[in-house]
Amino acid sequence: MDVRTNSEYLDFLAEHLDDFLRTFEEFMTHHVENSGFGAMAMGVAPAVLLKDGADKARVRVITDKLNRLVGALMDLSSVTDIRLAVQGAGVLDPFVNWQRMLEPKPLLDAPVVRGCCLQAAGRREGLKAKAKALSSPTIEPSVLHPLVWASAQRLWNDGHLRQAVAAAAEAVSGQMKQLTGRNNASDTSLWQQAFAQADPQEGKPRLRWPGDSDDQDVKTMQAGLLSFAPGVNMVIRNPATHVAVDFTKQDGLEQLATLSVLAKFVDRCLVVSVDGAPDPDTMQLLSQPAGERDCCTVR
């Protein structure tokens, strides 16, 4: 995993960097910078000195918190490329080494620590924008075909992923059965017959992709659905229903998405019967509001 393009980790760094800056500013209210006019042994004495009368117990608490925060920010320097080249000391991580400003012959001072924090915050924002631009789309179950998600939602949310896929597959098969008015064969066979190239027969209506039947694109879609629909039933519905093997959330999302694609294709198909009229079950389905049946046309 490249942490420079991982939005969650970049957000984690931003949250802890903000906390570090706030805590550092509180730390500095108990100290004074040893710089400018009247500074004491600059370059030899610490760059930051404890104020007279400072609450030492509180300073210890703040110091402990800063050290804990820089532990969480251990990758910040490498992620943002914020480093300091110090003569005689090499390259320093300005966050992990923030306390070097309290040592004799200090390698850092308060303005440098603040400046590095601000630069890191800005670079983190740039990396977050880049990560967003490079991010891949994700599958949101709730925006799948309503029939698919409504059938799978309860089982999915309860963690029964395989059963959720099986329920969604049954619902899509049920959509086809209701449109064709058939339930007298196996699901795979019914899908094959629904998209068969042959003319409809008595009691065996067909699902047809809309458009001119002589158009090559229409022919291609019809042939594709003849392979796709039974294939989905065999490789998704059948294992999910009959094989007790759990799979990952990603597996489940991909299979629900495939079922959603099939359901949307079925929505667009025409139901064709021998006499050109729908079966009673199909007519009942088509009488439902468009939002419930998601559009299906009959000729």
SSE order and pairing:
Layout: H1 7-28, E1 31-33, E2 48-50, H2 56-72, H3 76-80, E3 84-86, E4 90-92, H4 110-134, H5 146-157, H6 161-180, H7 187-194, E5 206-208, H8 216-242, H9 249-268, E6 270-272, H10 280-286, H11 290-293, E7 297-298
Parallel strand pairs: 6-7
Antiparallel strand pairs: 1-2, 3-4, 5-6
Helix pairs in contact: 1-2, 1-4, 5-6, 5-9, 6-7, 6-8, 6-9, 7-8, 8-9
Structure description:
With 299 residues, the protein is mainly alpha-helical. It folds into two domains: 3-134, no CATH class; 141-298, no CATH class. 56% of the residues lie in helices and 7% in strands. It is built from eleven helices and seven strands. The chain has helices spanning 7-28, 56-72, 76-80, 110-134, 146-157, 161-180, 187-194, 216-242, 249-268, 280-286, 290-293; strands spanning 31-33, 48-50, 84-86, 90-92, 206-208, 270-272, 297-298. The chain has a three-stranded mixed beta sheet with strand order 5-6-7. A hairpin with a 3-residue loop joins strand 3 and strand 4. Helix 5 (146-157) runs antiparallel to helix 6 (161-180) and helix 8 (216-242) crosses helix 9 (249-268). The longest helix has 27 residues, at 216-242. The protein is rod-shaped.
